[in-house]
Structures are given as structure tokens and as C-alpha cells.
Amino acid sequence: MALFAKAAAPDWPQYLAQRAATARDARLARFFAAGTIAPDTPINEAPLVALDMETTGLDPQRHAIVSIGLVPFTLNRIALAQRRYWVVRPLRPLSDESVAFHHITHADIAQAPIIDAILAELLEALAGRLVVVHFRHIERPFLNTTLQALLGEGIQFPVIDTMSIEARRYRQSIWARFRRWIRRPPVSIRLHNSRMRYGLPAYQGHHALTDALATAELLQAQIARHFPADVPIGSLWR
Amino acid sequence: MEVELLDIRQHMGGFPPFDMIDDDLLDEVAGQIEVAYFKAGSDILVYDQEIHHLCYIRSGAVEVYRRNGDLYNWLDEGDIFGHFGLMRNNRVRFPVRAMEDTLIYFIPEVLFEKLCESNDNFADFVELERPRLQATIEEQKKNNDMMITRVRKLVSRYPLIVAASTTVQEAAHQLTESQVSAVLVVDSMNDAPRYIYRDSEARPWQVRGILTDSDFRGRVVAKGLPPETPVGEIIGDRLIVIQSDESVYEAMLTMLRNNVHHLPVMHRLSPIGIVHLSDIIRYETNSSFYLVSNIFSQVNAAGMARLAPDVRAAFVSMVDEGADSRMVGSALSTIGRSFTRRLLELAEESLGPPPVAYCFMALGSLARDEQSIVTDQDNALVLADDFDPDEHDAYFAALAGIVSDGLNTCGYPYCKGDIMATNRQWRQPLSVWKQYFNDWLNDPTPERLLNSSIFFDLDAIYGDSLLVEELQELIAEKAAKKPLFLAAMALNALNRTPPLGIFRTFVLEQDGKKNNSINLKRRGIAPMVDLIRVHALACGSRAQNSFDRLDDIDQTQLLAPGVSDNLRHAFEFLSMSRYRHQVIDIKQERPPDNNIEPENVSDSERHHLKDSFQILDYAQKFLRFRFPMPAE
């Protein structure tokens, strides 16, 4: 099927199966063994989980995770009752600027567990669900780098990136090229601005749980507006 | 780690019925909701599907349909739906579709039940048909000016103070000298004084008690104590006080609760004055009282016209202080009557005594005691039957002219429909007036009655009121027995219909058309008055005021139980809404009118207006059914 033959997306089922067989850490092995759903599963039948992390910066090599929020959902319902949220203590010290940004203080962090202590719960909440993020170059690379440092083995998994869905619509379309040509600034594809385009309410940003909820709602809106409800997930994941 | 979903909780906490829920329970609700997005045009609930959630609109807007596909309601941010289905077999009764892109919070059934069980207000809200309007009206009733005005406003002078060692004779002397009826008694400081008085040299004293006029009777003379008795020995040991920032209402309650007529007013620990029961009573009846006496002291129309700003000021302060529509309506009507009366007195002074008896008659809103600040004059003259047109009409034409011109000067413009005593047709002896009413009653057609409904709100202002009472009598006796007349009146009462409501920045009509503003008198208040009048005429009521008429209607079985209360609440809300928007106009230095602009309408007002229009809509449908045109 042409839809999921995109060069960008690896063969996720095969990758996960292979890692399940080779992972040394039991928690990772369980996560990989839960696998993923088949690429031709329609999105409205797929179990999803919106994931957001607040980090001390944008570079996984230099910065660290300070909080993680997630909300399991489907295309029909976001289940807030199953939400999870952790503040974690980074392995590196926290800079003052990032504190101002997240409202997570040194004191909060000092009392928080390191990620190792919550990893089992986190991976269990993600296992068997397709992860949805806004801007895929944060959550997956940070988690991968953190686990490399902690366990000596990393993690990869398929994600749907609501920002790249927005980018395809609003940055790469003919209309977007026309805007560039008439020297109009490109439309913003940040989470808040993207939500505005779908009539979604303004939430207080920069809280990992709120942003995860905001991302889940955004995906529901994007699918409702731009895709058939049964679009195969293989055409969306990266 | 439990995370407060603050954003969700705060949003829900801002809208009824969740605004009545305490924070802990609201946190629990916020933590259990499910969320879903619906594109404009998509179905949210379809008829007869199973339902296990209460739906809350976080953003967007929805349409609610009847089973037959008719539009039943539209709802937007902060509204709930699905509760009827939850309470009736878990089946959707009214299908719902997204009108705009909409985000819905689904609240699980178990929590819905918990909310209903733990909070009566919540249960009432979801169980009763239209309770939020009622709740608001009742809330506003409590919020009249007595609730808002602080008691310190009633304090006019510093309290008289005597030391405990003062003799009762000396204290009595000081009370008489100062023309007050109570004095505070202070004593040297003890370890833990509750209230402290500092004298002119800043020495602290403890406030021990209050001595009032009646104490001299009850505690001194009746007990046979000598005049030398120190006051400290006779005062009681309990001191009831009120803090200066409490409401006048609270002061009144404190007096009632403790059966006292005087209350020392404290600013924190220190006394600043004493209020007496009579201060409260005087305060309540104060403002329009002053204005009316001022009207009667004027010697010409120009002097009266100069009071127009005072009328507006009294109106603004009444509305701002939370008076209800009956208080405002009757105060403005009293003012309107006073202007008219004073003008008639002045006219009689200049024209001489009237040649025959007459009664100057108010029609329309003035007769109903429901005037607003925007009103023209509607009046007529009923003359005694010994009136001879050739001989006497010149006098009454002149009288009517003076009054009408005077009213116009004072801010009551001439009636556009020429329903004024200056019009010869409406300046007639009683027998002719009876003929007019008999014609309307016996030979009614909707066309003939179209401009006559105003004559069915009538009241005497000045002169021989028996003349007008005879007309009121005639109407009350005959109207109820004239089905054709009632049907014609009912048909005319349906000429003006309410819109569906105000939605965002426009007025939404029943047919989906959008308008930029709405004349609240034409589209709400007048149709309501018209329909209440028809029911009142049908039950033989002599009342003119719409609320009084509803009371009379309640004595009969004309309306189903609860309907008249709904009408009262809706009428009250529409009337107050018009008054509030006239106050906005005045404050923004625009001429007040009967229009309201959607941008000046708050969220809750929008909801209540919609409810009120819906009540009016139902009541009009019932009116059509109740008073059908009899077959030829």
C-alpha cells in the first residue's frame, strides 16, 4: 500500500519485535514485546497515548527531562482519569532560566525520583499504544538518550507528530508556497496556535500533562478536519 | 502524584450549575472527564442512543433538536446537555449536533449522580425545566440595596459617650441635650476589653454597654432607683454591635434577632456611631421620596423640567443598588404621576376651578406602575356626564394642553399615536367612554383592537377617581364573558414575538436570521404585558400591574401550575435587563433607549435572556391555543 510505503517511516513492527528479543532491561523487553498495532489499523480503532515532556532545553545531549505527562486516548475519547504525571530529577543540575519557564522549582526537583524509579510505570503506560506528540524531536530523543545513559540501551517507537501534520497542511501546501511567494510570514504551527485554527480553547501551556491533553485534542481535531476517520495509522506514524 | 487540572476546573467552576460545587468535588469531576472534539456539522448525540455521560461544552456551539427534527435549543460555551437522557432510561431524547467546531467534556454518570446527591442546587438545576432564571431572580431579590449598602452609610453622627460613673440623671440630661435616644457607656480598661474607645486625649476606655431611652423607664424608674445611681450599675452585660462594613440588611437582622432597636456601629474595635431601627426604615424609603416632594414644591413647568437629571440619577442609583423591577417601575411611575398631578394643580391655578368634575387618566405603562426612563405620555380625560361640549370643552382643552406641553418639557414626549387628552376623541364624558369600551368588547376585530389595547391599562391620576373606577369595573365585568374579544386581544398579543436569543455578537431569530441589536420592549416586555393582560381580562381581574395581574390569574386555573412563576421570573428579568441597559446608556452619555446591543450583554445575562424568551415563546403558543377565534 502506497500510504505507508513512505521512506521516512521505518518498519516499526519489525524493529519492535527485534528489540523485544534483544533488550537486556526487563522493563524495556516488556515494552517492546507489547509491540505495536498493525500499520493498516484505521486510526479510529487504534489505542493512542498523548505524551509530553518538559525539558531543560532542546538538546538531548546537554539538557534533561524534568517532567512527563501522558493521557491515553482514542479518536473518540480522551480518558483523563487514566492520565499520568511525574516530576523527575535530572542527572544534571537545573539552570535558572528553565525553572522560570516550567514553574517547576529546584525544591520540586530535589524531592523528585530519578527517571529510573518511574520507568516501569511510564513504559507500561505507553506499551501497546501509539504515541502522539507535538514536535517529535523532543520526547523520543530525550527518552532515548536518557535510557542510553541509564541502562546502556536506548529506545525507539513509532509516533504521530501533530506538528508535522500541521506543517504538511500549512507549510508545504500550495497555499503556503503562495504565502511565501507574497512574503507573508508562515503560519505558526506551535501547539497553541495550531489549536486556535480548530477552535480549541487556550489552555495554560508548559505543563506536561496539560500539553499532552492539548496534543490529544489537536489530533482529534486534525483527523476530523483533514482525514477520513479510518485512515491507516501507517500513513501517519513516523 | 495528583495533579490539579486547574484549567478545566476553573472553566467549569465559572458556569452554572458547577459554580455551586465546592472545589474538592470539582477537582474530582475535572479528573474524571473524557474529552472529544466534534467538527462543525457532526452528530454528538443521536436519538435513542445509549447515554452514560453528562456533556459540557468547553468551546464551540451545538444545536439541540426535537425528535421530529425541529430546532429545540442552541447551546454554547459552559452549557450542559444530555441530563434529560441520563435521568430517563439512559436514552438520548434530544439529538445534538455541533454547529461549530466543538470540544465536549463528558462527565461520567456516576459522578453526575454524585453531584446531584451532594448538592441540591445542582440537582434542581438539572431536574427542573428552567431553574437558572428563577435562581437568579431570587438571588437578585435578596440583593436589593439593603444587602449592598454598608451600615456605616446610615451613621450620621459620632455616638454620645458617658463614663460608667456618671449618674443616670446626668446621662438623661445629656441625652435630652443632644436629642438622641441612646448613649454608650465606657469604663476604665480591663485585661481583655472587646471594644475600645479613645477619648480626646487618646486614653483608652473599654466600651461596656449601651443605655437607651427605654432603659430609664425599665431599669431606673420601674425599679425605683434614685437619680444618683451610676449608669454603670444599671446597664446590661451584653453588648450587641455591628461592624461598619456589614450591610444594612444584616443590621436589620441583628436587631430582629436580638430584639434591640439600637445598634452601636463599630469600626473594628472602636465605636463610630449608633443606628436606630428608624434610620433603616427611613433609608429604605428615602430617595424617590425626596424627589417627589421636590416636584410638588415647583411653581412652573420649567422648574419641574430642571428635576429631569435628578430623575435619571434616582433611576441609576436604584438600578445600581439592586432594586427589583417592581421597585424601579413603581418609583418611576410615582414620579411620573407626581409631575402630572403638579401640572394639573398649576393648570387649575391659572384656569380657575373646573366647570364639571373630571378625572385625568393614565394609560399604558404609567397605569400599570411599570414605567421606564424612556417613555412617552399616554393619557386621557374622563369628564362627568353633565359635561356640555360647547360650554366646557374650551376649559378642558386648555387644561390638557398645559399638562401635555408640561410633560413634554419634563422629558415625557408627546404620544406618537396621539393618545393624549389634547385629542378631542380622548377627552369625553363618562358615557362616551363607556360606549367606546362597549364597542371594543361587543364588536371586536383584531384590526379595531390593534391600537386600543393600551386603553385596557387604565388608572386615575388626579381628580374624581370614581369616573375611572367605573370604567375599570365595566371592563372587569364584561371582558371575561366575551370570547370573541379575548380571541382578538390574544391574536394581537401574538403580533410581536421574541427572538431565540442572543448569540455571541448577534441576535438570533427563530428562523435562524441574525440581527445586530434587539428592541427589548418590542420583542420581550410588551408581548409579555400583552399576554398577561389577556389572561387577566379573562379572569375578571381589576389589577393593572402585570405582577398583580399574575397574582389574580393564580387564583384561577387558567395557567398550569408553575407557569405564572416562570412568567414572573421572565418578566422580571426582561424588565431589569431593559433598565440595566438604559443605565449603561446613561452612564455612557447616550440617550437611553429600549435597545440592547449584544456586545453589552454578559454571559449570564445572555443565558437568562434566552430562557426568558423561551418562556415567552411557550406562553404565546399557549395563548393561541387557549383563546381560539370562535367559529363564525
Automatic annotation (TrEMBL), chain A:
Its EC number is 2.7.7.7. InterPro entries: Ribonucl_H (IPR013520), RNaseH-like_sf (IPR012337), RNaseH_sf (IPR036397). Pfam families: RNase_T. It comes from Methylohalomonas lacus. One of its GO terms (cellular component) is cytosol. Residues 47-228 form the Exonuclease domain. This is DNA polymerase-3 subunit epsilon. CDD domains: DEDDh (cd06127). It is an enzyme of class 2 (transferase). Keywords: Exonuclease, Hydrolase, Nuclease, Nucleotidyltransferase, Transferase. Gene3D superfamilies: Ribonuclease H-like superfamily/Ribonuclease H.
UniProtKB/TrEMBL annotation, chain B:
GO terms for molecular function: [protein-PII] uridylyltransferase activity. Pfam families: CBS, cNMP_binding, DUF294, DUF294_C. InterPro entries: CBS_dom (IPR000644), CBS_dom_sf (IPR046342), cNMP-bd_dom (IPR000595), cNMP-bd_dom_sf (IPR018490), Diverse_CBS-Domain (IPR051257), DUF294_put_nucleoTrafse_sb-bd (IPR018821), GlnD_Uridyltrans_N (IPR005105), RmlC-like_jellyroll (IPR014710). Residues 155-228, 234-291 form the CBS domain. CDD domains: CAP_ED, CBS_pair_CAP-ED_NT_Pol-beta-like_DUF294_assoc, NT_GlnE_GlnD_like. Residues 17-115 form the Cyclic nucleotide-binding domain. Keywords: CBS domain. It comes from the Bacteria. This is CBS domain-containing protein. It comes from Methylohalomonas lacus. The lineage of its organism: Bacteria, Pseudomonadati, Pseudomonadota, Gammaproteobacteria, Methylohalomonadales.
